[in-house]
Design goal:
519 residues; alpha/beta; FAD/NAD(P)-binding domain; 7-stranded mixed sheet; 35% helix; 17% strand
Length: 519
């Protein structure tokens, strides 16, 4: 039961953003209650022993960190660290009947040579350097604004101060920019994938959903680097829960919220433990969920479009590319069936209601960078993890009579594409759990909806927004920080806020700043 009947802030949802907001507000002396439906905090940013009897603590849902500002880590005194990856990506390919691949890493000489082997010249490497030099300059200017009051469109454009970059990323469909910059189909596809993570769109989508997704994937940290959470994603949310509790926040798990009522000045939150009052309610849930809690007509739920697969291997598989070391290839993002045309075909098939015949995916081995997630015996025996993230698999594909069968067919087709670039079937490398079953777990958007309460299984709670404000946002502190709803004292503090999405803590920080600004 809650310790009080009235709080300065009640936070609905104990995911990482809710915990960030709780820690900031409690450190500022506010009374804070966090209510979490599940029996643990962390939301999608958790670690767990997925396979019975196996000492491996995997980042079960979200798995890499890009957008978490060091400012939040410092402000909250978090005992949390990340590690850089020396390899950005590896993409297998066949050219002239020969198995090869594209390697992109911190070794510029090796990267240049890989581009030349794949494409036959230095043209694409030069284009790559120019393109990502541009995105890095944009990142350096945009990332600091994410924990500041929301800039206007004009102010953000002035801050970027590069008309060509603004047009390329904010005005034109990403496909136009990619096609103008690159000639090679494989290189184009590697670039485009950052615009499709958890986002069901195509390169020329006029909504620019792909542009918004791409932007959030290249601005993190002011560099665009994707880092490995030491100890797994749960290490971050455990640290955040500790910081919130130490500051005085009260956290109750296993407590579903069933309703929110507000007159704009005070609010009542009804949950499994009863009803509590609050000056402010911060909602770390999708806008669709918030509307239902308020008794309003919910908008159409967003649609997730990803397949998440966790695996544990006894060893890394060997690759057909004779020049590729598996320990390097899998230590960055390993792209499978993600050439530009393949991505377009997969999108069109899924949009027509069919599973992609050649499902695109990207894979990453956490344990190569951070073996601490594995038990000592597994490390000694050479075990490794693999995380696979499949694209263009919208929730609508799983709504028939046999969603589990659909998921298994998609998994088989996805692994077949991986097997096509290996010298051995991946299944030969899978570890087994205590019951003798292969250590592989797949989650569709509908599974994420059931497991995490994400409407439609959308990992961003809805399509991402450009990180600037509009006149429609209104006035007041909540609008200034991009966390406003239709109610003055009810704020979004999750991925559905402006500048939400990803493992960032940014909307939690911004909602807390808005509350503190109100006095």
């Amino acid at each position: 039961m809650p310790e009080r009947t009235f709080y300065d802030a009640v936070i609905v949802g104990g995911g990482h953003n809710g915990l960030v907001a709780a820690a900031y507000l409690a450190r500022a002396g506010r009374s804070v209650l966090v209510l979490e439906r599940l029996d643990h905090t962390g939301g999608a940013a958790v670690s767990g022993r997925v396979f019975p009897g196996v000492d491996a603590r995997l980042s079960r849902y979200s798995y890499l960190v890009s957008l978490l500002p060091p400012k939040i880590v410092r402000d909250l005194g978090l005992r949390f660290a990340v590690r850089k990856r020396s390899v950005s990506s590896y993409t297998p390919a066949v050219r002239g009947g020969r198995d090869t691949g594209l390697f992109v890493g911190s070794d510029e000489g090796a990267t240049r040579a890989s581009f030349a082997r794949l494409t036959g010249s230095d043209r694409e490497y030069g284009a790559w350097q120019r393109f990502y030099g541009m995105t890095r300059r944009v990142a350096e200017r945009v990332f600091p604004t994410l924990t500041e009051p929301l800039p206007t469109r004009a102010a953000l454009r002035a801050r970027i101060d590069d008309a060509a970059a603004w047009e390329a990323l904010f005005e034109r469909p990403l496909g136009e920019t990619v096609e103008a910059a690159f000639a090679d189909e494989l290189v184009r596809g590697v670039v485009l994938t950052d615009g499709l993570i958890g986002t069901f769109a195509h390169a020329h989508d006029p909504s620019l959903a792909q542009n918004r997704c791409f932007l959030y994937h290249v601005v993190g940290g002011g560099t665009g680097d994707w880092d490995v959470p030491v100890g797994g994603m749960g290490a971050l949310t455990d640290a955040l829960a500790d910081a919130a509790r130490t500051a005085g926040a009260e956290i109750i798990t296993g407590c579903s919220v069933t309703g929110i009522a507000t007159d704009g000045r005070t609010a009542e939150v009804t949950c499994a433990a009863g009803t509590v009052g609050a000056r402010h309610v911060l909602v770390n849930a999708a806008p669709h969920t918030l509307a239902a809690l308020l008794g309003e007509r919910p908008p159409e739920p967003a649609e997730g479009a990803q397949l998440k697969v966790n695996m544990l291997l006894t060893r890394l598989p060997r690759l057909r590319d004779p020049d590729a070391d598996p320990r390097l290839a899998f230590s960055g993002t390993f792209h499978v069936a993600e050439a530009y045309g393949q991505l377009e075909t997969a999108y069109r098939q899924a949009a027509a209601g069919a599973l992609p015949a050649v499902p695109p995916s990207e894979i990453y081995c956490h344990s190569l960078t951070d073996p601490s997630i594995l038990g000592t015996d597994l490390v000694r025996q050479g075990y490794q993890t693999l995380t696979l993230f499949g694209l263009h698999t919208p929730a609508r594909l799983f709504t028939g009579d046999d969603p589990d069968g659909t998921r298994e067919r998609l998994l088989a087709a996805t692994l077949a594409q991986l097997d096509a670039v290996l010298t051995e079937p991946l299944t030969d490398c899978l570890a087994t759990d205590a019951d003798g079953r292969p250590c592989i777990e797949a989650r569709s958007p509908l599974d994420l909806e059931r497991d995490l309460g994400l409407p439609g299984g959308h990992i961003f709670h809805g399509d991402l927004a450009f990180p600037y404000g509009t006149e429609a946002d209104g006035d007041g502190a909540a609008a200034r920080w991009g966390v406003a709803t239709g109610h003055a004292n009810v704020l979004l503090c999750g991925a559905g806020a402006v500048r939400g999405g990803g493992v960032s803590g940014i909307p939690g920080h911004n909602a807390a700043m808005a509350v503190l600004e109100c006095g």
